[in-house]
Amino acid sequence: MIEKNNIITAVCDGIGSNGEGIIRHEGITFFVPACLPGEKIRFRVLKIKGNVGYGKAEEVLTPAEERVRPKCPVFSKCGGCCLQHLDYSAQLMHKATVVKDALRKIGGINIAVPTAIKSDFPFGYRNKLQIPVGVDRDGNTVVGFYAEHSHRIVPVTACAIHPDWAEKLIAVVKRYMSECAVKGYDEEKKTGAVRHIVAREIGGKFIVTLVTAKRNLPNTAYLVGLLSGIFKEFSLYLNVNDSDTNVIFGQEFQLLHGEGVFEAEEQGIVYEAGPVTFLQVNENVRTKLYKDALKTVCQDGDEVVIDAYSGGGLLTAMIAKKAKRAYGIELEKEASKCADSLKEKNGLDNMTNICGYVEEELPSVLEKEKGEKLRLILDPPRAGIARSVLFALLESKIPQLTLISCNPATLARDLGILSGRLIECEGELVKNPAYVGVAEGETLSGYYAVERIQPYDMFPQTKHVETLVTLQRK
Questions:
Q1: What is the spatial distance between Cα 380 and Cα 228, in angstroms, rounded to a whole number?
Q2: pLDDT tens digits for 274-291?
Q3: What Å distances lie between residue 472 and 199, 374, 395, 437, CA to CA?
Q4: With contact defined as beta carbons under 8 Å apart, do 404 and 378 qualify?
Q5: Secondary structure of the chain in the HEC alphabet?
Q6: Burial code of 421-443, b = ≥16 C-beta within 10 A, e = fewer?
Q7: How crowded is the C-beta side of 14, counted as CA atoms within 13 Å?
Q8: 88-107 and 408-418 are packed helices; what angle lies between their axes, rounded to 10 degrees?
Q9: What CA–CA distance (Å, rounded) separates 377 from 381?
Q10: Do the beta carbons of residue 224 and residue 242 sit within 8 Å?
């Protein structure tokens, strides 16, 4: 009988969607991080529940050819870059497999998925830093990333997927906190101040936000001086979050220094963003993704395109330059305000920005705009598209839909509904019995068929993948 702390030697069969190795041994499927297919592994059993177990690799006895040395000194401790031990070309193939498996298992859609489009910069690509601040067991302030499935902070001074400026920023904030007696936040005791450091680079300028449980921090002028030593142009915000929550930002922002919003340019569009405006974290891959999305929705210039979950309006503006009319729907007020400013700066009179929930605002736009030239592009958060929106799309009879997703699981669910393979029964999603006997790859009339699917490696070294899907109504 296999028990906790047993040491087992076995061969890894594959990689799971979370980047962990899959090892099947004596009727139990073990998930063991940092293992690759074909490798002979010695691992320690950490937990067993039924026929599923979890382990920790103790030794790699026969390394796979795809194994590489991780750059990060805290690889396997930090919960972030779970694929750093896998050759980059193999990462791209793995992410295509993750998307394909999710579509088949969750959405009932069995189609070929091409290899993910690469990032030209597999390391140092992120334009945004979001790092927790807390205390260790001795009550000392610590800055780092959470360990997998926990809120235990693994201390770091730098991160391989962030540019050099992130290392300098971490050092400056740590120096400020040490010299000004500012403590990290203790989640258990509800004491201390700083909870997160959040920073974003926009066109070579920086927006830095300290998320704190207190409304005032001492000597913030000193912090501004320290930041001036590493950033030529920056803004500094204090965000107050004194609630017991996993949400990073609270509602209250205090601008302590700088303009608060900065401009940049992409593909001929001048755009701006603030501390909470959504922008893709990998600019290199974002350019590739947006160019492909534009080709999909704008072909002859007569299209009317709705951009749902439009963020700061960058993609909406790109669409407006090529289409007859463009609508952007975005819930976040700051982002919608940035989109309005973007519209004005770029002289886009055919661009309309709507601030509100997609599920509430989309029906009226669909009622206003109808016809064969109507296109809809949706780029929802990780939770996916609201179910009410999905059913509204089925009723709308829009000829073409384009989806951008950062979560293969919710993408598969949403595509299952749009393709008719999943239907709602008493509030639950179930397989559509009408598909029994329907040929593989065929789609029932009145639903959408996947015309094209392409993953993009927006997040190298991590388990995450971005996917672009084009759907055609049958």
A1: 36
A2: 898 888 999 999 999 999
A3: 39, 12, 14, 22
A4: yes
A5: CCCCCCEEEEECCEECCCCCEEEEECCEEEEECCCCCCCEEEEEEEEEECCEEEEEEEEEEECCCCECCCCCCCCCCECCCCCCCECHHHHHHHHHHHHHHHHHHHHCCCCCCCCCECCCCCCCCECEEEEEEEECCCCCEEEEEEECCCCCEEECCCCCCCCHHHHHHHHHHHHHHHHCCCCECECCCCECCEEEEEEEEECCEEEEEEEECCCCCCCHHHHHHHHHCCCCCEEEEEEECCCCCCCCCCCEEEEEECCCCEEEEECCEEEEECCCCCCCCEHHHHHHHHHHHHHHHCCCCCCEEEEECCCCCHHHHHHHHHCCEEEEEECCHHHHHHHHHHHHHCCCCCEEEEECCHHHHHHHHHHHCCCCCEEEEECCCCCCCCHHHHHHHHHHCCCEEEEEECCHHHHHHHHHHHCCCEEEECCEEEECHHHCCCCCCCCCCCCEEEEEEEEECCCCCCCCCEEEEEEEEC
A6: bbbeeeeebeebeebeeeeeeeb
A7: 11
A8: 40
A9: 13
A10: no
Owner of token pair 């906190």? 177
Least trusted range by pLDDT, from 68-82, 91-105, 348-362: 68-82
Angstrom distance (rounded) from CA 66 to CA 86: 6
Mean of pLDDT values over 357-372: 89
- Is 329 a residue whose pLDDT tops 90? yes
User: Torsions phi, psi of 50, nearest 5?
Assistant: 65, -125
The tokens of 376 are what? Answer: 């809809």
User: What value does the mean pLDDT take over residues 69-83?
Assistant: 90
- Chain-centre distance for alpha carbon 107: 20
Backbone angles phi, psi at 27, to 5 degrees: 80, 0
Under 8 Å between Cβ of 187 and 135: no
Q: Which residue has the tokens 């608060």?
A: 260
Residue 3's alpha-carbon distances to 34, 128, 369, 444, in angstroms, are: 21, 42, 62, 49
**Could you give the CA distance from residue 146 to residue 148 in angstroms, rounded to a whole number?**
6
C-alpha to C-alpha distance for 81 and 67, rounded to whole angstroms: 14
In whole angstroms, give the CA distance from residue 109 to residue 435.
11
C-alpha span between 369 and 260 (Å, rounded): 36
pLDDT band of 267, cuts 50, 70, 90:
confident
406 in active site? yes
Residue with tokens 């296109």: 375
pLDDT for residue 79 is more than 80: no
- Find the catalytic residue in 82, 159, 406, 425: 406
Question: Phi, psi at residue 108, to the nearest 5°?
Answer: 70, 25
C-alpha radius of gyration, the chain, whole number:
24
